[in-house]
Specification:
CATH superfamily: Vaccinia Virus protein VP39
Number of helices: 9
Number of domains: 1
Oligomer: single chain
Strand content: 15-25%
Number of strands: 9
Strand order of the largest sheet: 5-4-3-6-7-9-8
Structural class: alpha/beta
Largest sheet: 7 strands, mixed
Shape: globular
Helix content: 25-40%
CATH class: Alpha Beta
Radius of gyration: 20 Å
Amino acid sequence: MEMFGFDNTHLLLHYRDEMKQEDVKRYFAWIDQYLNGQPAQYIIGETDFYGNRFKVDDRVLIPRPETEELVEWLLTDFADQKDLKVLDMGTGSGAIAISISKEHPDWQVDAADISAKALQVAGLNNEMNKTNVRFIESDLFNAITEDYDVIISNPPYISEDEINYMDESVIEHEPKEALFAKNNGLFMYQKIADYIKIKKDAVHGSLYLEIGFKQTEAVTEIFTESIPGCEVTSRKDFFGNPRMIRVKY
């Protein structure tokens, strides 16, 4: 009932009241949208991620629970670290960056995305969660001028030939540029590796990346070939699928 602006107290006091006719119409319109494949998060206009609330619409990908585990991995590794500089590449709704910033307001957390529309949503979430994340409109690292201790990313990694195996509601409603990548879904990982290859002699740091559950070997190979001597660690999600890697360079 949040969509009507009702909190639990209101519901307890007014649960016998008849709904206004305009609210009934809105309710059934939402039901129709859902039955026609619209994701519930877009209908509600909000979703939860890492214990925080985020605005979402069709300008951004809906944050997934699996990505919370990527955030948790980073936060655990650097739990006692002060003055860390973190970049969230391909931030979308800002869920990753804002969640990290809420846990560590002492860190500098920046976030980048190529989509100006996505950054509009991220900015609203920054205000709603009272965080101080700096958002940068950038095609990958083109507009990034600083060096970072940690880069975290949930990039597009789905191969276009996998579209037939995907949920229709995802294909129809979520932004395709946040889902699909060229080169069998590996394009973004190669671009990130190319960037680190240039930086690694001057800057040492860590990458935390979400991957497709069949991509561990291929993504590991990209980084070990591009950055000799780097340390790549994979991790499974709570379903037992390998969905994350950490690269220390």
